[in-house]
Design a protein that fits this description.
The protein is of the alpha/beta class and about 775 residues long. It has a domain at about 5-255: Rossmann fold (3-Layer(aba) Sandwich). Strand 13 (about 350), helix 14 (about 355-365) and strand 14 form a beta-alpha-beta unit. It is globular and about 95 Å long. The relative contact order is 0.08.
Length: about 775
């Protein structure tokens, strides 16, 4: 495999030559979004590279970045790559001491600093970092006096002007090597100093190849970047979208994500599970405030969506009626929920922690392609992720290409592949611990792989403790201060409550114990012997708790009929017992798995259900709902360009035909159109027509704005203002009469598809 064509510098040069005036990035400044073309973006990277050459940055020299997200952050990163130098990020939120350790350990001579917070920390540790020679400020307003130690970015850039630097830059680029270290990312360990993870260009190239194989990312689409670039997750994603020719939008304030989504309308954005949990909770909080009829519409729509998702995950094609029911649900409910995410979302990579399965199921069901993945800094981010179609919600997906896995001692996940780090910077002891004899990386995570290749994470090995009977348990289950959780529930149409989300109100406090490593003992040998022999033993015992059966009478079912509303689940109760000299003492009891009652509805309505013939006639006489698709041709827009020779044309945007869906009700031969909507929006073809050389001056063409299919009726998902939370409502679904019609229609379609009266099988 020719990895050179996937070298990060090679990819940037290709994109700049290929796309030229096309938008590369977008950034927020002075209250509005500003685009930057590939030509300008690439020129600024080279300007930075030549200024670094003026300051004699050598091959594989470490260049530091201590700043929040910004275009300048990426430009410095890419400029260092052009020089075969090595960019070292420092979290914008790191303490002054943490920053000092990284600066000194990596030997950073030139440091780029973003905002006031980082600038003040550097001022504190200046004397602690004797090797630090220059601090370059992105925010030039922070410098109130001349200082040879601190330079504003504009002044720094002027130092690289001159033809000699052009030639030196070309020579460095021509010498690029796949084994060069691209970056050193320091991980924050639970104990001791952080470790610098070495990532080379071969690691990055393999990630490009792996993502190309697994993800359907389209050039020209838009990505929103708001997670810290100092972390490998967002850093590698930004590198990947640049590799794909995707427009990257920089946001440095995570509090503005909700409002920015509607402005940027991204197709992709990396998130952590916590953000999806907040959105999910807000949606269900808003649903709770709605009328009974709207709640019924929402509950029916989500039920249909989850059943359809279940069939797709099993590789089964949805039935005709199920698909039609989903189309109506999508039009009435889901499109308005997705509008709050900008309306264009095609994929949301999610990582950093496990995602609650019910939340993943909900977003996937409504058509938001959440893709959960697993990785770490040592693996250059992604190791596994969900497939677009077949995956298990409790897993972290299947392995990406060019990756091997095996399960080692204590069920530890061991990895080997092209994206795995070569080790830690100047840390041979940790390198020896990190890898097995046959070259597999020790992840520190316990898990297993099922027969279908899905990877499951069960525990973090380093956070477990071993009891006297050899069993591993989490120490926070028996030590420290107890935390508090807030449980969010929703009311089902049948009146039952369903738990949707648990939110931590008070975080539990771990008990931290220092364990001595000093040779010898603190007690005489005899006392130590007695202490060990007579120490209490902690025994963990499990008790199975049977579930109860609750019967609820309902007049919606006939006498003798029953319906299971909730399946029962046995609970598991753990007892922590201290055994000392044969005496057992119960120290603590807690539920490992909560018991769940079985709830059964029992009919009280006099009479019986309809005879077989009547049911048959009822079904046969239902109006038929058919779907017809209409092709919508695209239009051709011509824009004059006085920079092109007369008669020459250039296509700026390819046209795309649209698809309009008509829902038609057929009853006794009579056709009535009930609804129509655009399944695929038509996209105009935009052509530049050259006018250079013509006597008349070209008339400037007004830039056409992207067509918006429908204005979102939803309120913002999240807001910092307290009064906004009171105003947020579920998207309006019309008048009471239309709501009733929608609810009846969904229920009717659901009945025909066998959905309403049948409880779906629990997934995963």
């Amino acid at each position: 495999m020719d990895l050179e064509k996937f070298h990060l510098v090679t990819r940037l040069a290709y994109q700049a030559a290929h796309y030229k005036d096309r938008e590369a990035i977008r950034y927020w400044e002075e209250g509005q979004w500003h685009p930057m073309s590939w030509t300008v973006f690439y020129d600024k990277i080279q300007e930075l590279a030549k200024a670094l050459l003026h300051h004699k940055v050598g091959v594989q020299e470490k260049v530091g970045i201590f700043a929040p997200n910004s275009p300048q952050w990426t430009m410095v990163d890419m400029a260092a790559a052009h020089l075969r130098a090595c960019a070292v990020p420092i979290y914008a939120t790191n303490t002054a001491d943490q920053a000092a350790y990284i600066i000194n350990n990596a030997g950073i001579r030139i440091l780029f600093v973003g905002e006031k917070e980082q600038y003040e920390k550097i001022a504190q540790i200046k004397e602690q970092c004797p090797g630090l020679q220059y601090v370059i400020l992105f925010n030039e307003t922070l410098l109130d006096k001349e200082d040879t130690f601190v330079l504003p970015l504009s002044q720094f850039l002027r130092t690289g002007q001159g033809e000699e630097y052009d030639q030196l830059l070309k020579e460095r680029v021509a010498q690029r090597n796949m084994q060069d270290i691209y970056t050193i990312i320091y991980t924050s360990g639970t104990t001791g100093n952080p470790k610098g993870v070495l990532i080379d260009y071969e690691n990055v190239a393999y990630q490009f190849i792996n993502h190309d194989d697994r993800l359907a990312v389209v050039e020209g689409n838009v990505s929103l970047s708001f997670l810290p670039l100092s972390h490998v997750y967002e850093r590698m994603w930004v590198a990947y979208v640049l590799h794909k020719g995707v427009i990257n939008c920089y946001l440095d304030d995570t509090n503005r994500v909700a409002e920015v989504l509607k402005e940027v309308r991204p197709h992709y954005m990396c998130v952590v599970p916590r953000l999806l949990e907040k959105i999910y909770t807000k949606i269900y909080e808003n649903v709770e405030k709605q009328s009974v009829l709207k709640r019924l519409v929402f509950a029916t729509a989500t039920r249909i969506a989850k059943i359809q998702l279940g069939r797709k995950k099993k590789g089964k094609k949805p039935s005709f009626l199920l698909q039609k029911a989903y189309n109506v649900a999508d039009k009435v409910v889901f499109q308005k929920l997705k509008a709050a995410l900008g309306g264009n979302i095609q994929m949301i990579p999610c990582g950093g922690a496990l995602l609650e399965p019910s939340i993943g199921r909900f977003f996937r069901a409504i058509g938001v392609n959440v893709t959960l993945g697993y990785g770490m800094t040592e693996t250059t981010a992604t190791v596994s992720c969900w497939d677009d179609h077949k995956f298990k919600l409790k897993s972290v997906g299947t392995l990406v290409p060019n990756m091997q896995v095996k399960i080692g001692e204590n069920n530890e996940i061991l990895l080997k592949g092209g994206s795995i780090t070569k080790g830690y910077y100047n840390n041979p002891e940790e390198n020896a611990k990190a890898f097995t004899e046959d070259g597999f990386l020790r992840t520190g995570d316990a898990g297993y792989i099922d027969k279908e290749g899905n990877l499951f994470i069960t525990e973090r090995i380093k956070e477990l403790m071993k009891t006297s009977n050899g069993k591993y348990i989490a120490p926070q289950q028996i030590e420290g201060e107890v935390g508090k959780e807030r449980i969010f529930t929703s009311m089902n149409p049948d009146g039952t409550k369903e738990e949707k989300l648990r939110e931590v109100v008070e975080t539990p406090t771990d008990r931290i114990v220092l364990v001595g490593t000093k040779p010898g003992t603190s007690l005489p040998e005899d006392e130590v012997k007695n202490l060990v022999l007579n120490r209490p033993e902690l025994v963990v015992e499990e008790e199975t708790i049977d579930f109860k059966v609750q019967e609820r009478k309902t007049d919606k079912l006939y006498l003798g009929e029953t319906r299971v509303v909730q399946e029962g689940q046995k609970g598991i109760r753990l007892h922590l017992i201290e055994v000392e000299n044969g005496k057992r003492q119960l120290k603590e009891t807690y539920d490992k798995v909560a018991v769940q009652d079985r709830i059964v509805e029992v009919g009280t309505k006099p009479g019986t259900s309809l005879p077989e013939d009547e049911v048959k006639n009822l079904v046969l006489n239902l109006p038929e709902l058919i779907s017809e698709e209409e092709i919508i041709d695209f239009k051709v827009q011509e824009q004059k360009n006085d920079k092109l020779p007369a008669g020459q044309t250039r296509i700026l945007q390819e046209g795309r035909q649209g698809i309009r869906v008509h829902l038609i009700e057929v009853e006794n031969g009579k056709r009535t159109e009930k609804e129509s909507y655009d399944k695929v929006m038509a996209q105009d073809r935009i052509v530049e027509v050259g006018t250079a050389g013509e006597t008349t001056k070209p008339v400037p063409q007004e830039a056409t704005k992207p067509q918006v299919s429908e204005k979102a009726d939803t309120k913002e998902i999240a807001s910092s203002k307290a009064n906004q939370a009171q105003k947020e409502q579920l998207p309006n679904t019309g008048s009471a009469a239309s709501q009733a019609a929608v609810a009846a229609g969904l229920a009717l379609l659901g009945l025909g598809a066998g959905l309403v009266a049948t409880k779906g099988k629990k997934e995963d």
